[in-house]
Amino acid sequence: MNGPTTFQTPLFCSNSAPRGAFDFLIVGAGFAGAVLAERLANELNQRVLIVERRPHIGGNAFDRHDEHGILVHPYGPHIFHTNSTDVFEYLSRFTKWRPYEHRVKASVEGQLLPIPINLDTINRLYGLSLSSRELEAFFAQQAEPKPTVRTAEEAVVSKVGRDLYDKFFRGYTRKQWGRDPSQLDASVTARVPTRINRDDRYFTDIHQAMPQDGYTRMFERMLDSPNIKLMLNTDYREIEHLLPWRHMIYTGPIDAFFDHRFGALPYRSIRFEHVTHHQERFQEVGTINYPNEHAYTRVTEFKHLTGQRHPWTSLVYEHPTAEGDPYYPVPCPENTALYRRYRDEAEKLPNVTFVGRLASYQYYNMDQVVAQALKVFRTLSERILLTRADHMPS
Ligand code: FAD
Ligand code: UDP
After folding, report:
1. Domain ranges across the chain
2. Ligand 2 mean position to 386 CA, how many Å?
3. Which stretches of 178-253 are DSSP H helices?
4. Quick check: 17 pLDDT over 70?
């Protein structure tokens, strides 16, 4: 990728690109691409072209109505939660919200038990009636403390011991990632906390809600600007040399951008099996995890998430695979080292900015991607405003 050759002006030098030219070429219409397009177009009057390989906007957060009219997430269940009021307020410009607190149960030894592990999980699993204080002592007794917690196995075993690790984490993680938890960073299982109270919510963030009309509608509103042109079904490589632009924002996999020159970064993919039943409700909570049985990891019933009323119900079964679209970066030391080689290359390109989950090779949630994109916007806008000031007639 050598960047555009069609115009000679330095980056960001005018108020906007010459007629017919774009200030920004944004690759990917997921959260990273859409937030940056919206900010650049609406706040700084930049002309933006978004190029998206898929036939729709929204990236992996895309949702749509299935053939029965049920709102589903084709790329797996997306539940919005954040502790960032800035992120929540920013997205609130484009959607109203439906309050929703996600709950998950894990199928273990014939019971459906709350996960994250809490007081009820332990009492029901072991037939005990511990208080919170007694549970603290119980965990302390089971735990195998480590001076430094490095792996996803250690992150769990050092807190709650091996039995709970074996029952709730080992099998799930092996299925999800295709490798043992001892070969993954601690941050992977540390996403799931342990509680000594009876709180059975999956997340405890201060903002937990679903976009009232769905994610896709929210993205449509973000991209609704005369300064934004959208090209679907197009790989950016088909057009990058055909259209003039000044700066690229790239939100795809970083190794693909560099033609995998240092070798392919590993990603985990998922085959999503969507199933519809002619019944109102299928399961008692939004998601049921299957750490020990079946090839799939979890089953999600969308109507819990969306609050939709419908005589039918739609579910998604997640079957993790090595092949297929890249969905998850795989956090472990060797992959981080390989990613850093690509990042070093990326830093040498002044007219390309890498943003988002796959471009940063970080296991980011949606709100983290929005926060990252807003931060990138602030940096870009400083540069744009500075160069504008330089070119003001004195
Ligand atoms: P993406 O959404 O991947 O968007 C990148 C876009 O770039 C894609 O649409 C892709 O088609 C396009 N693209 C790539 N290469 C090219 C190219 N060469 N040319 C043109 N276009 C290209 N987060 C949460 O907060 N809560 C959840 O409950 C949650 N659940 C998840 C469940 C699953 C199964 C998965 C996989 C992720 C989940 N996430 C969740 C994470 C969330 O999906 C991501 O954080 C977020 O969607 C990332 O946005 P992005 O813009 O970085 O990337
Ligand atoms: N995990 C597990 N058992 C569970 C839930 C999660 O072992 O019942 C582990 C597993 O390694 C998983 C990770 O914790 O990949 C993070 O879980 P999370 O629900 O955050 O995964 P995501 O929604 O991102 O797929």
Report:
1. 1-57+223-265+330-394, 104-190
2. 44
3. 186-190, 215-222, 236-239
4. no
Q: Which of 10-19, 179-188, 342-351 has the lowest mean pLDDT?
A: 10-19
When mean pLDDT is compared across 10-24, 40-54, 126-140, 192-206, the lowest value belongs to 10-24
**Two tokens at 61?**
């957060």
- Whole-number pLDDT of residue 1: 39
Do residues 46 and 387 touch, judged by C-beta distance below 8 A? Answer: no
Asked if residue 205 has pLDDT above 60, the reply is: yes
95 contact partners, CB below 8 Å, separation of at least 6? 211, 212, 213, 217, 218, 221
pTM above 0.85, yes or no: yes
In the structure, which protein residues have their CB atom closer than 6 angstroms to any atom of ligand 2?
106, 115, 168-169, 172-173, 176, 188-189, 191-192, 289, 291
How far apart, in whole angstroms, are the C-alpha atoms of residue 48 and residue 227? Answer: 6
Distance 252 CA to ligand 1 centre (A): 9
Q: Across all residues in the chain, what is the average pLDDT?
A: 94
Q: In angstroms, how far is the first alpha carbon of the chain from the final one? A: 37
- 306 φ, ψ (degrees, to nearest 5): -90, -20
Q: Cβ(185)–Cβ(151) under 8 Å?
A: yes
Whether the per-residue pLDDT at 12 is higher than 50: the answer is no
Q: Please give the pLDDT value at position 293.
A: 97
The residue whose C-alpha atom lies closest to atom 20 belonging to ligand 2 is 191
Greatest C-alpha distance within the chain: 80
1-57+223-265+330-394 is a CATH 3.40.50.720 domain: yes
Whose atoms come closest to the Cα of 29: which ligand? Answer: 1
pLDDT exceeds cutoff 70 at 328:
yes
Cβ 289 under 6 angstroms from ligand 1? no
**How far, in Å, is the centroid of ligand 2 from the Cα of 189?**
6
Mean pLDDT of 27-52: 98
How far is C-alpha 105 from the geometric centre of its chain's CA atoms?
21
Q: Which of 268, 106, 264 shows the shortest CA–CA distance to 177? A: 268
Q: Among 18-27, 127-136, 160-169, 272-281, where is mean pLDDT lowest?
A: 18-27
Phi, psi of 354 (to 5 degrees): -100, 125
Closest ligand 2 atom to 318 CA: 25
